[in-house]
Description:
By secondary structure, this protein is mainly β. The chain has 1 helix and 17 strands. The chain has a 4-stranded antiparallel beta sheet with strand order 3-4-5-6, with no helix packed on it. The radius of gyration is 17 Å and the shape is globular. It starts with a strand and ends with a strand.
Amino acid sequence: SVWRVPEGALEWDAPREDASGAQAVAFSPDGIRLLVTGDAETLRQYAWPARTEERRLPAGERNRSIAFHPDGCTFAVAACCQGGSEVRFADVASTAPGFRPDRVTEDCDHLSGLAFRGDGRWLAVPGRELSVFEYPSLRRAHRFDRNGDRIDAPPADATGVLDSAWTSAAFAGPGWVACALGFLLRLLQHQ
């Protein structure tokens, strides 16, 4: 559902098949696109405020997060699967039936709270660890464990099964990323 906040009025309710299992929504920076995804294994892209469906993408199971790049031309979606998850990318104006071939693969069964930094040069991917990638090269630049300490590789006992994970991330200024782990909030320096 989309609500007009000042009036507290319902603006639009997605068709039932679109909203079934919805877990993540995102408006483009210019407000003319709306993305909806979740457990239905499909990502839907709408023109806004026309409310017309522009396309559907097969998104995989348990999609928990969508993040628009600040340029509004590209978005990332976290597709979570047992034994491994991916961040997939697509171009808003594309008519291609699927995602681009570039992707980030993580060895965990839960990703959420994707975030691009305001200048679009970095992407934070919260999971069992918090990874920060350069964009668009997708080179992993930093990885932080549950305590917020930098790590160079996954721990030896990493099994791909979620016991606790970073749930959200947001960039603050040129070199900091804030992230949440349950009731904890950490501010980490990534540059």
